[in-house]
Specification:
Elements: H1 8-23, H2 26-31, H3 64-95, E1 99-112, E2 115-129, E3 132-138, H4 139-142, E4 150-153, E5 159-160, E6 164-168, E7 173-177, E8 187-188, E9 199-204, E10 212-223, E11 238-241, E12 253-255, E13 260-268, E14 279-283, H5 284-297, E15 303-304, E16 307-309, H6 315-320, E17 329-334, H7 339-343, E18 350-354, E19 357-358, H8 362-370, E20 377-384, E21 387-394, E22 396-397, H9 398-403
Parallel strand pairs: 8-13
Antiparallel strand pairs: 1-2, 1-4, 2-3, 3-7, 4-5, 6-7, 9-10, 9-12, 10-11, 11-14, 12-13, 13-14, 15-22, 16-17, 17-18, 18-19, 18-20, 20-21
């Protein structure tokens, strides 16, 4: 960096010139247009009782007229923000009656201090599924609890008990049929149109504070391979959100700005046990795939391809197969007689797409197949010998295939 210095002599010359300038009569300066002008800001007279002191910053402060003008501008700007706030208030009015608080008393897995039971609190959302009014929640909230030991508290304070309960350990989803007067049901999104950056609300009972509402965005999608609870949640495709989710929010809805349920709040990533801005919700497509089957048949039937997948598909392995990068699901084995075998899938094929949906990795394929109807035929795009090949594959039910 270059620094600039002046000598003491040059400073004295400058001071002398400045003094001469200031001593020139004002008239002579007006006659000479080239002469620099000096404007002196008026200093306010000290107010009575100020002891003769002056506020040197007073000229930089806003006048009363300027303050009033700025208030008007702030008011106009606030109107736009208030319109957004009105939308959130309307959403809250619509959604709160559809959300319930759940208390479940269940046998203790590890009795402590002579207590043979433990209490668990969570949330749920009321929905109309297959002609029945149900509460959708997380399985871990009500698992091992008898119906008589589950209390569902509505927004108005009324308490009811479920008359039937179904659950799916593979996704941590549970459904309880309920009966009651004037039950409000939520609107469920028709698909997974949610995008990263979309605004969402989480509603539930964090730390038992029922019907709490928090606001955030969708931080990410497709979070899989998480270690949850007892570790038996096999099918995962979580939405990640920074809307505050805490213990007790489990089973409550994640909602978009149209008032549609887009996910079921399930878990948090936390070192402290509280919200650290990373919450996970099951997407509505998976929720409804499981819920509808539980209500209609009491169990969940999932599609089966009959392939073994490489859990560690490395860049080197992809290069050996002629791929620039490791993407898709690498097939390390095909079960004889399985749908994949009949369709012509081969070992070392890489499944790139299923019905046009690009496959990110093996977990993504497993998740996608888990919500594929068992009576459908899918189109697989596989990479083999440097080429993309399309195969038609009628999927089978895992239960039916394994029973053969």
């Amino acid at each position: 960096m270059m620094h600039v210095y002046r000598s003491v002599k040059s400073i004295r010359v400058l001071d002398a010139a400045l003094a001469a300038l200031l001593l020139l009569p004002l008239a002579s300066r007006a006659e000479d247009p080239s002469a620099p002008s000096v404007r002196l800001a008026p200093i306010e007279r000290p107010a009575a009782g100020s002891g003769g002191r002056v506020d040197p910053m007073r000229p930089a402060r806003l006048s009363n007229a300027e303050r009033e003008k700025l208030y008007e501008q702030v008011s106009r700007d606030a109107e736009a923000l208030e319109r957004q706030g009105s939308q959130l208030r309307r959403l809250t009015q619509l959604l709160r009656p559809t959300v319930v608080h759940i208390d479940a008393k269940k046998p203790a897995l590890r009795p402590k201090n002579g207590k043979a039971s433990e209490d668990e609190a969570g949330s749920g959302v009321i929905a109309l599924v297959a002609g029945r009014t149900v509460v959708i929640t997380n399985r871990h909230v009500v698992n091992r609890a008898e119906l008589d030991n589950i209390t569902i508290r509505l927004d108005g304070g009324q308490e009811i008990r479920p008359i039937r309960l179904w659950s799916d350990p593979m996704t941590d989803i549970a459904v309880m049929e309920i009966e009651g007067d004037d039950l409000e049901t939520a609107h469920l999104a028709s698909g997974d149109s949610l995008q990263i950056g979309d605004t969402v609300l989480a509603i539930g009972s964090p730390f038992g504070l029922s019907h709490s509402v928090t606001l955030g965005i969708v931080s990410a999608k497709g979070r899989r391979d998480l270690e949850l609870g007892e570790g038996n949640v096999k099918f995962q495709d979580f939405i990640q959100t920074d809307a505050a989710i805490n213990p007790g929010n489990s089973g409550g809805p994640l909602v978009n700005l149209r008032g549609e349920v887009v996910g079921l709040n399930t878990a948090i990533a936390s070192n402290s046990g509280g919200s650290e801005g990373i919450g996970y919700a099951i997407p509505i497509s998976m929720v409804m795939f499981v819920t509808k089957q539980l209500v209609e048949t009491g169990s969940v039937s999932r599609a089966y391809l009959g392939v073994t997948l490489d859990r560690v598909f490395t860049q080197k392995a992809a290069n050996r197969l002629g791929m620039v990068r490791a993407v898709g699901a690498h097939v390390s084995g095909v079960s004889t007689g399985s749908p994949a075998d009949v369709a012509g899938v081969q070992t070392h094929d890489v499944i790139l797409e299923v019905d046009g949906v690009a496959i990110e990795d093996d977990d993504h394929l497993v998740s996608l197949v888990s919500v594929t109807p068992t009576n459908s035929t899918v189109t697989l795009t596989v990479f083999r010998n440097g080429e993309r090949i399309s195969l038609r594959l009628p999927v089978a039910s895992r239960e039916q295939f394994e029973a053969q």
